[in-house]
């Protein structure tokens, strides 16, 4: 819209110029004087008088009325008076000529006074033929006082000289006086008056309003630098006021930078960098915005001048929908100096060189035949067979088809032909990026065919790849000209550059010199040069990272061939380093998918640059070698079935290639563990090329189970690393990038390979219910009056204590809610490991609202409210929720005084995304708290076989097989390409019998028709996997099969496809073999009740594990101390654990100075600290962690005679204090985190005696030895304590003890006592 408006403005200016020409008499355009141009105007002060007129000045025409006068004057003795007695003609006087140069900037100045009528000052530019070719005009209104008047203009092309014209226009009648005139050349600094210090008539000289009615003025009240800024007011949302600079010459294809400082008193402000051609048509615009209010902020733009550009202007603008007031200062424009170019060594000059060198080819061929090594689930031969199968298919193609939005199928001819315009898919209103998938398909063919030639030596593959390569090289452009991508290139450019680079590299020896030149020129002019231009911008976006990845790879293949390759590599390396630093410091990310998309491509470029140049400096960057691996490993669902999918992502296992390279480059064992756990080592060409048979695999067992990542605001709380462990993920950060969602304080939960609390994942970009649900309304957070969050980001994560049995974090996200507005939304999360979560959602607003607690689950198999099956979409009052889906179940209880409205439903218009739960707050209120207790655990079905037991495949037709995540399930995806393709799995049947065979399939627009064969025999009917949208998994009944105990094969063979389907793929979620009477497991339930208190709220939660222990969880809700249940203190959050006899068996708190239970001190300190302790029922040891920001003595509940172990070392008697009356000990600790263990020899022995029911006299003898040891310890006699414990050990070997005490009990006692002795002997 702005382009249209600006073109109209340009036309308007031309019309105005025409009207001015009509108003002036013909003499105005005549030769002003016959003398040669001088350096300055003659007689600018009007002091020289000849015949009563100022010497050196000429009347506009013979009838012009002007004279020298001595009163009034501004300076000196004389001024000039102009008298305009007729409204039918103009009156004026012109200066002498001043030499002027095209492109230089000039200022005409004079003082004027108009007792009646008005007057004007013209700055005129003339060519050598004495034709006026440019004019700038300033106007002075009626007034009796002398006022300055300045006019600034740039001399247009062809200028030879300039003049000043003092003028009274046609239609005017009056008297005007002028004095102290001058015409000077200004320093060449663009834009003119960028500092706004030149003021004329209360407005900045050299700047013109975008149209009539723009309210702007020079002011001194609010400036960034100097004395003046310009203020612009935008009172209406129906117009966009703007202020444009003078013209500034540019050269096409050179890089320019524009900047300005702006201060928004209200609303927002923008800077436009406008490029114009020589016909004064605006041909390109770049825009940057400052939305911050109340402070000066820079706005800057860098852009290459487009082809045909003659000059540029800056436009200070407030867009049409904006209302507000803005100030601008310090505008600048200029060509960006070229950056220093780094010289990269060429250590591998021959080809191939990107992925491997000629010396590596024998090992590559051996890899293709390797049937033994499969560290991540596939052998080298399996990977190669899939590539060759695709290459063979490509050899027979004459076209390929792709499915796009809404199921639209587009067919592309082969060899690749540059596509013309393609109509949008139905229902998609904005430009559609068809070229992205098309170019990736071309890349796949170039890479697979050229690699097939390298490995097999079959020249037919090379000939086909060469044919495609030369065809692509002949295209006019490598980016879709109909799709706006915010630069010179897009994803299509990157894909074509990658594919061309690899094919050129591998086919180099089979290309003629002429063909090499053709391909290199295409690679540089259509790929690298436009990518190089775009790579200048440090943009945090996946498109930009892919662009620069392709730039680096393409530059590596042309190093030594192109003189520009070093410049390309320099810019690429600068971006890579910036991107990695940004990931560590900005707090922003676009989710797993797009970070993986960026790093998987970028790390290929790193590898290529390393192989060609020997430069590997980015490999050790902490983002790659530390943070990225931690992020992915911690966010991985137990069982390896997908990563937490906040933002645009599926619950998939991303980073396959990145982890491959990190494992190979840096021997990163956790990257290897991730690949082994997920079986996600990338397949295809990249998977084969980066396959490593000797991969390093290190489980993360030594890592803390939970983490809160400061780098991106993700909390990832785990119970451990096995399949049946639990992961709780929550996001609270300030990330507001393009692929982020409105999901602050949203959480996800996974266990047993299932995301039981998930996220809808990748957003739908078309306005409507699917977009609403995926972007705002489907996240497990809080809705207000039925609305989701209105601002991206604006959340913060506060890390509490993360301990072996207890985690606490808090997300604050009120800033994400602007309409309706929240003043507080704190989500407190307490994780009582391994399976219980207590959430307090503390909400406040300025006005009453209804709040909804939302939980998204996706594919559910059953759900209940208060123990009864619930009808989907029906609101039922209740407090208890039960959900079962996949191989997991979740139970939740909402604590409070009354039932809450609960609904489990599918979102209208987005039903394919499955189920989500809403729990309402009831009547509108300005404050509300949800106190929720959730438990989750694996849900084990008999006879179920999932990907964990079905992979690797027993056999297949050689197509790609991998795991994908869809609708909350992990699915075995098989890329069938034609009827007859198949995959075979093996199931181990526990006993002989008759079984009902079920297959749980995914449905999709690309899936085929499948027939199952058990042990080679067809079973049941064929399954049609087509559906208009991705749905399922759905259960397909094959019928009864009689199976013997032991292994049996099930082959899924593609027999065809639905006419509407775009391909022959298979998606298998699981297989189930049902026998008669197979029962369902007992449902999970939550034992919890509300705990009232003062200045706090809490929950009493039963563990439900048979121990009889209950956890009293308390949250402080105000300042000072709180009392909730039995607990009291001042911590932000605390937990007190009590056994069935009300004895304290655990206590935890975050950031407090004291925690008590029934008045007894459990924890105490002089300044806030965090701690978590539990007592082992088997040994009576108390163990835990303490985090203290400052060195201090920490008091904690412990037996007076216990041994204190800090960070693995026992403290000597006297190194800590004992308060027997209070039942506490005081441990001096340095600032930091410490592991603390309290060990009691007597407690250990007594516990074992009780557990084994050892009778008298043995029990008394054994406990007496232990009591004596502790007594000696309490006196500081360590040697005597050791003596008594050694006697106890000796006593265990006496015949009397061996006759009366079971051998396992003796072994347990020896271990318990031996552990205490080991500690004491360290002192």
UniProtKB/TrEMBL annotation:
<dbReference type="InterPro" id="IPR054470">
    <property type="entry name" value="FIMAH_dom"/>
</dbReference>
<feature type="domain" description="FIMAH">
    <location>
        <begin position="1245"/>
        <end position="1313"/>
    </location>
</feature>
<feature type="signal peptide">
    <location>
        <begin position="1"/>
        <end position="30"/>
    </location>
</feature>
<dbReference type="Pfam" id="PF07940">
    <property type="entry name" value="Hepar_II_III_C"/>
</dbReference>
<keyword id="KW-0732">Signal</keyword>
<dbReference type="GO" id="GO:0030313">
    <property type="term" value="C:cell envelope"/>
</dbReference>
<protein>
    <recommendedName>
        <fullName>CBM6 domain-containing protein</fullName>
    </recommendedName>
</protein>
<dbReference type="InterPro" id="IPR008979">
    <property type="entry name" value="Galactose-bd-like_sf"/>
</dbReference>
<dbReference type="Pfam" id="PF22888">
    <property type="entry name" value="FIMAH"/>
</dbReference>
<dbReference type="InterPro" id="IPR008929">
    <property type="entry name" value="Chondroitin_lyas"/>
</dbReference>
<feature type="domain" description="Heparinase II/III-like C-terminal">
    <location>
        <begin position="706"/>
        <end position="855"/>
    </location>
</feature>
<dbReference type="GO" id="GO:0016829">
    <property type="term" value="F:lyase activity"/>
</dbReference>
<dbReference type="InterPro" id="IPR012480">
    <property type="entry name" value="Hepar_II_III_C"/>
</dbReference>
């Amino acid at each position: 819209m702005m382009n249209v408006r600006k073109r109209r403005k340009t036309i308007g200016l031309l019309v105005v110029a025409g009207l001015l020409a009509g108003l002036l008499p013909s003499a105005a355009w005549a030769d002003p004087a016959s003398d040669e141009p001088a350096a300055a105007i003659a007689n600018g002060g009007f002091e020289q008088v000849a015949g009563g007129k100022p010497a050196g000045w000429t009347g506009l025409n013979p009838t012009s009325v002007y004279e020298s006068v001595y009163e009034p004057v501004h300076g000196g003795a004389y001024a000039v008076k102009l008298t305009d007695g007729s409204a039918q003609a103009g009156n004026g006087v012109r200066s002498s000529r001043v030499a002027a140069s095209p492109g230089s900037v000039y200022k005409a100045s004079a003082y004027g006074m108009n007792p009646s009528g008005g007057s004007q000052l013209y700055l005129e530019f003339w060519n050598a033929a004495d034709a006026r070719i440019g004019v700038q005009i300033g106007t002075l209104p009626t007034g009796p006082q002398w006022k300055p008047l300045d006019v600034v203009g740039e001399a247009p092309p062809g200028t030879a000289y300039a003049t000043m014209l003092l003028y009274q226009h046609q239609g005017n009648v009056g008297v005007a006086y002028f004095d102290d005139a001058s015409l000077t050349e200004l320093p060449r600094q663009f834009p003119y008056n960028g500092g706004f210090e030149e003021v004329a008539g209360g407005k900045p000289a050299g700047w013109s309003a975008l149209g009539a009615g723009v309210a702007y003025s020079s002011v001194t009240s609010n400036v960034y630098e100097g004395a003046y800024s310009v203020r612009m007011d935008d009172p209406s949302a129906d117009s966009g006021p703007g202020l444009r600079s003078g013209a500034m010459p540019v050269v096409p294809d050179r890089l320019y930078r524009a900047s300005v400082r702006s201060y928004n008193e209200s609303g927002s402000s923008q800077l436009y960098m406008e490029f114009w051609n020589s016909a004064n048509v605006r041909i390109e615009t770049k825009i940057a915005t400052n939305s911050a209010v109340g402070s000066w902020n820079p706005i800057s733009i860098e852009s290459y001048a487009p082809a045909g550009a003659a000059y540029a202007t800056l436009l200070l603008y407030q867009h049409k929908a904006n209302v507000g007031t803005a100030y601008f200062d310090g505008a600048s424009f200029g060509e960006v100096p070229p950056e220093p170019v780094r010289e990269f060594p060429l250590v591998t000059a021959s080809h191939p060189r990107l992925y491997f060198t000629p010396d590596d080819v024998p090992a590559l061929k051996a890899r293709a035949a390797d049937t033994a090594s499969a560290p991540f689930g596939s052998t080298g031969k399996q990977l190669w067979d899939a590539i060759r199968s695709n290459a063979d298919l490509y050899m027979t193609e004459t076209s390929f088809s792709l499915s796009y939005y809404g199921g639209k199928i587009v067919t592309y001819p082969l060899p690749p032909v540059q596509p013309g315009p393609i109509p949008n898919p139905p229902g998609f209103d904005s430009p559609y990026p068809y070229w992205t998938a098309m170019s990736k398909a071309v890349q796949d063919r170039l890479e697979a065919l050229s690699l097939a030639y390298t490995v097999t030596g079959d020249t037919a593959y090379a000939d086909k790849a060469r044919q495609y390569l030369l065809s692509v090289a002949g295209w006019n452009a490598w980016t879709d000209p109909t799709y706006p991508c915010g630069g010179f290139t897009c994803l299509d450019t990157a894909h074509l550059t990658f594919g061309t680079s690899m094919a050129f590299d591998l086919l180099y020896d089979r290309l003629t010199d002429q063909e090499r030149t053709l391909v290199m020129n295409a690679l540089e002019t259509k790929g690298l040069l436009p990518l190089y231009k775009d790579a200048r911008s440090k943009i945090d976006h996946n498109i930009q990272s892919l662009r620069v990845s392709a730039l680096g790879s393409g530059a590596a293949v042309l190093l030594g061939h192109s003189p520009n390759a070093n410049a390309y590599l320099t810019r690429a390396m600068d971006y890579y380093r910036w991107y990695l630093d940004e990931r560590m410091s900005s707090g922003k990310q676009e989710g797993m998918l797009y970070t993986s998309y960026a790093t998987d491509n970028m790390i290929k470029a790193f590898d290529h640059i390393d192989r060609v140049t020997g430069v590997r400096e980015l490999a050790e960057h902490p983002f790659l070698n530390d943070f990225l691996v931690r992020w992915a490993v911690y966010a991985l669902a137990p069982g390896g079935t997908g990563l937490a999918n906040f933002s645009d992502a599926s619950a998939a296992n991303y980073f396959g290639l990145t982890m491959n390279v990190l494992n190979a480059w840096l021997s990163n064992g956790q990257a290897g563990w991730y690949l082994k756990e997920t079986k996600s080592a990338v397949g295809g060409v990249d998977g084969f090329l980066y396959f490593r048979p000797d991969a390093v695999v290190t489980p993360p067992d030594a890592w803390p189970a939970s983490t809160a990542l400061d780098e991106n605001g993700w909390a990832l709380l785990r119970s451990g690393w096995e399949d049946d462990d639990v992961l709780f993920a929550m996001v609270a950060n300030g990330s507001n990038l393009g692929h982020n969602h409105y999901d602050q304080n949203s959480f996800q939960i996974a266990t047993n390979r299932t995301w039981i609390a998930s996220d809808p994942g990748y957003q739908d970009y078309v306005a409507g219910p699917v977009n609403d649900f995926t972007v705002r309304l489907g996240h497990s957070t809080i809705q207000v009056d039925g609305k989701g969050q209105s601002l991206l980001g604006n959340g913060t994560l506060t890390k509490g204590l993360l301990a072996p049995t207890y985690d606490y974090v808090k997300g604050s996200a009120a800033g994400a809610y602007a309409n309706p507005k929240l003043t507080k939304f704190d989500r407190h999360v307490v994780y009582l490991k391994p399976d219980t979560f207590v959430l307090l959602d503390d909400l406040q607003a300025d006005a009453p609202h209804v709040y909804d607690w939302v939980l998204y689950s996706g594919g559910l198999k059953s759900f209940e409210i208060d123990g009864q099956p619930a009808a989907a979409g029906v609101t039922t009052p209740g407090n208890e929720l039960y959900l079962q889906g996949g191989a997991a179940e979740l139970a939740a209880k909402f604590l409070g005084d009354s039932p809450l409205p609960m609904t489990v439903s599918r979102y209208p218009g987005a039903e394919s995304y499955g189920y989500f739960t809403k729990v309402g707050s009831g009547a509108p209120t300005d404050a509300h708290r949800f106190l929720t207790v959730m438990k989750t655990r694996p849900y084990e079905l008999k006879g179920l076989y999932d990907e964990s037991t079905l992979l690797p495949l027993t056999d297949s037709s050689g197509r790609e097989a991998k795991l994908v995540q869809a609708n909350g399930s992990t699915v075995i995806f098989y890329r069938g390409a034609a009827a007859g393709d198949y995959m075979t799995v093996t199931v181990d049947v526990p006993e002989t019998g008759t079984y009902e065979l079920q297959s749980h399939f995914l449905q999709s627009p690309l899936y085929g028709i499948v027939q199952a064969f058990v042990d080679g025999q067809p079973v049941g009917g064929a399954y049609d996997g087509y559906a208009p949208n991705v749905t399922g998994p759905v259960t397909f009944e094959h019928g009864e099969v009689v199976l013997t105990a032991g292994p049996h094969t099930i082959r899924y063979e593609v027999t065809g496809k639905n006419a509407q389907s775009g391909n022959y793929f298979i998606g298998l979620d699981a297989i189930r073999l049902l026998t008669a009477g197979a029962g369902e497991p007992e449902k999970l339930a939550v034992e919890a009740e509300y705990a009232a208190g003062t200045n706090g709220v809490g929950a009493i939660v039963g563990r439900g594990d048979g121990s009889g222990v209950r956890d009293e969880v308390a949250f402080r809700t105000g300042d000072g101390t709180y009392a909730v249940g039995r607990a009291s203190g001042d911590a932000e959050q605390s937990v007190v654990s009590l056994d069935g006899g009300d004895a304290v068996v655990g206590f935890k708190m975050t950031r407090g100075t004291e925690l008590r239970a029934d008045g007894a001190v459990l924890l105490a300190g002089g300044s806030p600290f965090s701690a978590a302790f539990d007592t082992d029922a088997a040994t009576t040891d108390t163990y835990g962690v303490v985090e203290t920001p400052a060195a201090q003595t920490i008091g904690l509940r412990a037996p007076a005679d216990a041994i204190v172990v800090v960070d693995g070392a026992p403290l000597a008697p006297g190194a800590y204090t004992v308060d027997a009356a209070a039942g506490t000990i005081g441990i001096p600790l340095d600032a930091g985190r410490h592991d603390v263990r309290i060990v009691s020899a007597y407690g250990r022995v007594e516990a074992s005696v009780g557990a084994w029911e050892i009778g008298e006299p043995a029990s008394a003898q054994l406990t007496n030895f232990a009591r004596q040891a502790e007594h000696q310890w309490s006196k500081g006699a360590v040697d005597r304590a050791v003596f008594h414990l050694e006697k106890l050990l000796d006593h265990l070997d006496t015949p009397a003890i061996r006759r009366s005490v079971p051998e396992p009990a003796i072994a347990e006692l020896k271990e318990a006592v031996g552990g205490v002795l080991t500690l004491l002997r360290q002192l």
